[in-house]
UniProtKB/TrEMBL annotation:
<dbReference type="GO" id="GO:0005524">
    <property type="term" value="F:ATP binding"/>
</dbReference>
<keyword id="KW-0663">Pyridoxal phosphate</keyword>
<comment type="similarity">
    <text>Belongs to the alanine racemase family.</text>
</comment>
<dbReference type="Pfam" id="PF01168">
    <property type="entry name" value="Ala_racemase_N"/>
</dbReference>
<dbReference type="GO" id="GO:0005829">
    <property type="term" value="C:cytosol"/>
</dbReference>
<dbReference type="GO" id="GO:0008784">
    <property type="term" value="F:alanine racemase activity"/>
</dbReference>
<dbReference type="Pfam" id="PF08245">
    <property type="entry name" value="Mur_ligase_M"/>
</dbReference>
<protein>
    <recommendedName>
        <fullName>Alanine racemase</fullName>
        <ecNumber>5.1.1.1</ecNumber>
    </recommendedName>
</protein>
<feature type="binding site">
    <location>
        <position position="597"/>
    </location>
    <ligand>
        <name>substrate</name>
    </ligand>
</feature>
<feature type="domain" description="Alanine racemase C-terminal">
    <location>
        <begin position="704"/>
        <end position="828"/>
    </location>
</feature>
<dbReference type="GO" id="GO:0016881">
    <property type="term" value="F:acid-amino acid ligase activity"/>
</dbReference>
<comment type="function">
    <text>Catalyzes the interconversion of L-alanine and D-alanine. May also act on other amino acids.</text>
</comment>
<dbReference type="InterPro" id="IPR029066">
    <property type="entry name" value="PLP-binding_barrel"/>
</dbReference>
<dbReference type="InterPro" id="IPR011079">
    <property type="entry name" value="Ala_racemase_C"/>
</dbReference>
<dbReference type="GO" id="GO:0030170">
    <property type="term" value="F:pyridoxal phosphate binding"/>
</dbReference>
<dbReference type="InterPro" id="IPR000821">
    <property type="entry name" value="Ala_racemase"/>
</dbReference>
<dbReference type="InterPro" id="IPR036615">
    <property type="entry name" value="Mur_ligase_C_dom_sf"/>
</dbReference>
Length: 830
């Protein structure tokens, strides 16, 4: 819907802008997502990762003419005579105000508000699936549920919407009021209250209370009474006539009693519901068996009843609920192509967010391909119009090649740009006509949804068919980054350590994310790693810790800033610099204050300063040192001496070179000695979600890397049988033994075999039996639920890297960086 600038000024309670007639229908909070400059209103938000005001000049150059800001920009960058500035005291509050007013224009629209610690997005998608065949629903895209995501979601409400479904997520006390005022839900659902995000809350009970605030004006609120604390807190806040309670545990006071019978053979569950007050009962079937799915089904039944519907009438829709996968995966493909797969939903909003994601991953000049299935048409009256919009969107994003797969999209082929589009009515036709070599070096988005069989395409383009993968959760990394960001002064820069290929997680995707997140520097160990980053389009400053290279030209020409730890190295770099004609090339001076590895010592400082002063080839950008025992409290005296010596030496350097930055803290140092943060800190292991302290101070970190494989074979053996090389695995009982394709060549250290460690299969720990082979090992699944094809976690959310390290007598750093490069890395964001 369009709003005039005049109307927006009115809503925000600010002066009439110079161009009151400008029309706006796109709200933008992240400059990288700009698509329609002329119709965009940009909000210069201040977030932990940056200040939106920094992007005003660039957006103006790219055609944006409407801005909500706290202060007008400096006219040194542009004169902005033809732009509207809405100057407000609080930009985020202005965004929320606009969303609130927009929502208020639809007072009779029923809106379901979903909150809870987990499962919000899945429940939202289930409800959308169940209801969208009969009514036009509008919902949050993906998991847009934050203080900023919610207003952007609400903005999508159009007059033809018949139902809204929005998520509300909070991470600290006091956030829910704003979300409630905007969403104004008529029906509320709470999925569950976990212990996650415990940070902002004193207790779980506090957290229940905060979540329940979403519902203060709801007509009906649906929740489960099987969680006694939630039941008790909800009963205090919500009158009985407004509550619709469900129970899977047979609670007689519940309004709706649910009984589930799992059918493992058919991977489905039969669900009986009995809602005696409503004189309703019936049976439905869902194509899932997990606990989370059964909980979801119970809440979905409760929500339908709250809306005055009979769930039995939707039984067919229940049986066809798709598997909700909100993740965008990034996979290395054949011939250096990169695949982005998105199986979330084949509709316009999710295509838009996938294209946005793709655009940010694109390096300059990189060829792009989008593979699209038939798009979801439920709730769309004009299919042709929808495909026209999609085509425009693809053109807007500068997509080089479009491949449509499906009968519907093929029928609309003529709508798409003719040059480089191809259409196939089925995946089989595509597979027959195309070969992987056509896709070399391209960045490829494979959009799909349940029933589109696009997995076959992904398989064709995937580089390696090895079934062991290292999954890297980029959201978790951003979360960890922001935890440290929040602990530091705003002016302190973060050097993100991505040496050893990002502690094994793979450096490019991480670097791209960290660059977007506002890290000050990346640091790698060797020049080759840095070169790879530059070649893939990373433009931010990069520090090279061990710059001993033969080819200094690459160092200079790619702006890779070396660490300098000795006079020999300094002389070599100056000499090479002179040969290549560089000037004022930034270098980083390493001091040895106690690690006794590399670095200048205190008695070198005078000579170092005078040598640096006597030339203009290199310029010292920073001076730093490294702590030897930051994580050993019993050696804090030693650490203090390091700090004292660093202060003494670095201040002499700084007197000589006033612009020089100083840094000494690594991850543990940041947590334990924040008073020594100086100008920058160097964040390593904790960025990857591995705590280095066991006192609870780092418990809110989330693991970034998870190593998974799959069961490729299962056999039953009787007691006494031996398994593997050297017959070292002797079975003491009749056993089920599963074989998994991971061995010591993948980084699963051989010392973990013979029962020394376990893997995680469907909720059970399964010991490794016998010796680990090069590419394979065997695990005992006698006590687990386990089938061929099941996923096996080696480490991740259930098995800690730190525990594996303990078993091996080493540290998590070694376990992470030992995952072999032949293991495929998959990066994803929710
Ligand atoms: C690896 C490294 C770090 C990061 O250490 P963590 O303990 O992983 O945070 C910091 N500084 C230097 C010089 C390093 O080599």
């Amino acid at each position: 819907m369009q709003y005039s600038a005049l109307r927006i000024a009115d809503i925000l309670n600010v002066a009439t802008p110079i161009y009151p007639d400008a029309l706006i229908d796109v709200l933008l909070t992240d400059s990288r997502s700009l698509t329609y400059p002329e119709r965009t209103l940009f909000f210069a938000l201040t977030t932990p990762s940056g200040d939106g005001h920094r992007y005003v000049a660039e957006l103006y150059r790219r055609g944006v003419r409407n801005f909500v800001v706290r202060r007008r920009p400096d006219t040194a960058d542009a004169c902005y005579t033809d732009a509207n500035f809405f100057v407000v005291p609080d930009v985020r509050a202005a965004l929320q105000q606009l969303a609130r007013i927009h929502r208020g224009k639809f007072p009779s629209l029923p809106v379901i508000g979903i909150t809870g610690s987990r499962g919000k997005t899945t429940l939202k998608e289930w409800l959308h699936h169940l209801l969208s065949s009969s009514i036009h629903t509008v919902r949050s895209p993906r998991s847009y549920n934050s203080q900023i995501g919610v207003p952007l979601s609400l903005w999508e409400i159009t007059p033809d919407a018949e139902l809204g479904i929005f998520e509300a997520g909070i991470s600290e006390k006091g956030e829910m009021d704003a979300l409630r005022d905007m969403i104004a839900p008529t029906i509320g659902v709470i999925t569950n209250v976990g212990i996650e995000h415990a940070d902002g809350f004193a207790s779980r009970s506090d957290k229940c209370d905060e979540k329940i605030k979403l519902f203060s004006a709801c007509q009906k609120v649906v929740y489960s009474v099987d969680d006694p604390l939630l039941a008790q807190r909800a009963a205090c806040a919500i009158q009985p006539e407004r509550s619709i309670t469900v129970s899977r545990l047979g609670d007689n006071n519940a309004d709706i009693k649910i009984h589930c019978t799992i059918n493992r053979a058919e991977s489905c569950a039969d669900i009986h519901f009995d809602a005696h007050h409503f004189h309703l009962n019936g049976n439905i079937k869902i194509p899932f068996t997990s606990e989370a799915a059964l909980d979801n089904a119970s809440l979905a039944i409760g929500t339908l009843i709250a809306m005055g519907m009979n769930p039995s009438e939707l039984s067919e829709r229940f049986t066809s609920i798709p598997n909700i996968d909100t993740r965008l995966n990034v996979i290395e493909g054949v011939n250096n192509c990169i695949l982005i797969t998105d199986h979330y939903a084949a509709d316009y909003p999710s295509l838009m967010s996938a294209l946005d994601f793709m655009n940010r991953r694109r390096t300059s000049g990189q060829h792009t391909t989008v593979i699209l299935p038939d798009m979801e048409t439920v709730g769309t009256d004009d299919v042709e119009h929808m495909y026209k919009n999609i085509s425009l969107l693809l053109v807007k994003y500068g997509i080089d090649r479009i491949i449509g797969i499906g009968e519907e999209i093929t029928r609309h082929a003529c709508i798409f740009p003719s040059g480089n589009s191809r259409f196939y009515t089925s995946v089989a036709d595509f597979m027959a006509a195309e070969t992987p070599t056509d896709f070399g070096h391209s960045l490829i988005l494979v959009k799909g949804a349940e029933n589109h069989n696009t997995e076959q395409i992904t398989e064709m383009l995937e580089a390696r068919q090895h079934e062991t993968v290292l999954e890297v959760d980029l959201d978790a990394m951003v979360h960890n980054f922001n935890i440290f960001r929040a602990q530091l002064k705003p002016s302190t820069g973060i050097v993100a350590m991505v040496k050893a290929s990002g502690y094994g997680a793979g450096s490019y995707e991480l670097a791209k994310t960290l660059q977007n997140q506002g890290a000050a520097y990346l640091a790698v160990a060797v020049a080759d790693e840095a070169m790879d980053l530059r070649n893939s389009g990373i433009t931010m400053p990069i520090m090279v810790l061990n710059p001993k290279v033969t080819n200094y030209h690459t160092l200079f020409s790619h702006m890779l800033e070396p660490e300098v730890y000795s006079f020999d190295l300094l002389h070599e770099i100056i000499e090479e610099g002179r040969r290549y004609g560089v000037k004022d090339f930034p270098i980083h001076i390493k001091l040895d204050t106690g690690m006794h590895r590399l670095g200048f010592i205190e008695s070198d400082i005078d000579q170092l300063i005078s040598e640096l002063k006597s030339q203009d080839i290199v310029t010292p950008r920073s001076v730093f040192s490294h702590l030897a025992a930051a994580d050993c409290p019993d050696m804090d005296d030693y650490t203090m001496e390091q700090f004292t010596m660093f202060e003494r030496c670095s201040s002499r350097m700084k007197d000589a070179f006033p612009g020089m930055l100083r840094h000494i803290l690594n991850s543990t140092g940041i947590t334990r000695f924040p008073q020594y943060q100086y100008d920058m800190v160097r964040l390593g292991i904790c960025l990857y979600g591995i705590p280095t302290l066991s006192d609870g101070s780092q418990n809110d970190l989330q693991p970034v890397s998870s190593l998974y494989t799959v069961v490729i074979s299962i056999k039953n053996w009787s007691a006494g049988t031996t398994v593997g090389y050297g017959r070292k695995g002797v079975l003491t009982r009749d056993s089920r033994i599963a074989t998994i394709p991971i061995g010591y060549a993948d980084g699963l250290r051989r010392a973990l075999g013979c029962g020394h460690s376990s893997v995680w299969v469907n909720g059970s720990l399964c010991p490794i039996i016998g010796n680990i082979c090069m590419d394979i090992c065997m695990v005992d699944v006698t006590d687990a639920r386990c089938e061929v094809g099941d996923r096996v976690e080696i480490f991740g959310h259930n098995i800690n890297v730190a525990d594996i390290a303990d078993k091996l007598g080493t540290i998590p750093y070694e376990v992470l960086s030992s995952v072999s490069s032949r293991v495929k890395r998959i990066y994803f964001r929710e």
